[in-house]
Amino acid sequence: MKKRIYYISIILIFVLLSVLIISKHEIWRDEGRAWLIAQSAENIPELLSSLKYDGTPALWHLTLYPFAKAGLPVITMSIIHFLIIFSAVLIFLRFSSFSLLQKTLFIFGYFILYEYNAIARSYSSTVLFLFIIAAIYKNRFKYPLRYFAAISLLACSNLHGLCISLALAIFYFYEFKSNINKAVFTVNYLLAALIFIFTLLFCIYNLLPPDDLTRTLTGWKGSTTSTIPNAFISAFFPVQIPQLNFWNTKLLYYPDTGRYFYGILLYILSLLVFFRKPKALALYVLTSFSLIALFALKYGGSTRHHGLIFILFIFSLWISENYKEISLFSGPGINKIFSKRMTTGIFTALLVFQVSAVPIPVYYDNKYDFSAGKRVATYLQENRFLREDTFICVYDFFTAESVLPYLNIEFYSIENSKFGRFIVFNTGCDAAFNTPAKYKTDILKETTKN
């Protein structure tokens, strides 16, 4: 009874804090962009076609599509986003075997309470599907259709979810081969594999770049050598600098040379928690390095991307209860040093780091505008600049996307040479970025002739 009351209490506190944080958060351009793309598409094929310029699977945009097309206000997106992460929290509290303290620290940590809660992006869906997978992990061989449906949804959440789902599928088939006597092949396995293959093909279709994609988004450019330690710091110690532009800053990024030491150390500490669960450790390394490879080869990422490494850490610890304890190293001395008490202490400390990162973003997001988009939209409306004969030309249009979710108009894009509610990242962007101001003014003069 006391345990139930405790759960109800922390759920109510989480909801209350979430409402306070989200109500004070102004959406920024990437948040608003998803809503604008969904709102502007006349049909699903057009929506999928638009997303080819964004390089992401379509699940988040498809989720928003019916609500955006219904003419609902953009706050609807934040509500949907909250319901997704709230569902993940409920599943975590109900099905994970962590202690009450560890559960509490986790849900009131930086990523769950702020990054994947206040900022409406597709990454909350990644968290939800990972937690669903963890909840059903015990019966993954008994119910393969259920398991592969979950990792297929994970693949559709975003590019990072796709990388993780591939790693999970590889590990599943490795285990299946090793436990062939326990996991007897049935037609359900074939159907599960077909579902996942079809999902991969659908995601690949979404990700295939169009011929006129801007050069800044094409190819495999790689990242700097600091990418990996930066990602580990963001994942495990996301404490930010207390300043107006706090987001995506990190205290441990300074001094610059220190980040290599801090980042690798934090990841090693996370590995030590799996000292007696080598199979869970293998899955954690495989999934986390599927993201690290993406960061190193394509795009270094930001806090929202790096945080998925921490979520994978939690996920791998959660599913570790399905594996027997096996000491990685023999000897009483080693086992005494890496006792269960010690590994639990490391885990709890990493959770405390997450909670310590919450006050700074909550304070600054509450006191100042996270984005000026809402304020600009209000200014245009209150000063009656939005008449039928008003012509608003924008460069760069990407920045202006934080304004348009609050308005029912279109801006003229220099990059795309047309009116619209979001920028299309095509070769027109390259021309606008790489040419002198006269190129832009000539477009504007030609457009205003009529």
In short:
The chain is 64% helix and 2% strand. The protein is mostly helical. The radius of gyration is 23 Å and the shape is globular.
Detail the topology: elements first, then pairings.
Blueprint: H1 2-23, H2 29-40, H3 44-51, H4 59-69, H5 75-95, H6 100-107, H7 110-118, H8 123-136, H9 144-157, H10 159-178, H11 187-207, H12 227-236, H13 258-272, H14 278-297, H15 303-319, H16 332-337, H17 340-356, H18 359-367, H19 373-382, E1 393-394, H20 397-400, E2 411-413, E3 418-420, H21 427-433, H22 437-448
Helix pairs in contact: 1-5, 1-7, 2-4, 5-7, 5-8, 6-17, 8-9, 8-15, 9-10, 9-11, 10-14, 12-13, 12-15, 14-15
What report would you give on this structure?
This protein has a three-stranded mixed beta sheet, with no helix packed on it. It has 450 residues and is an all-alpha fold. Helix 8 (123-136) runs antiparallel to helix 9 and helix 12 (227-236) crosses helix 13. It is 64% helix and 2% strand. The longest helix is centred in the N-terminal third of the chain and has 22 residues, at 2-23. The mean pLDDT is 90.
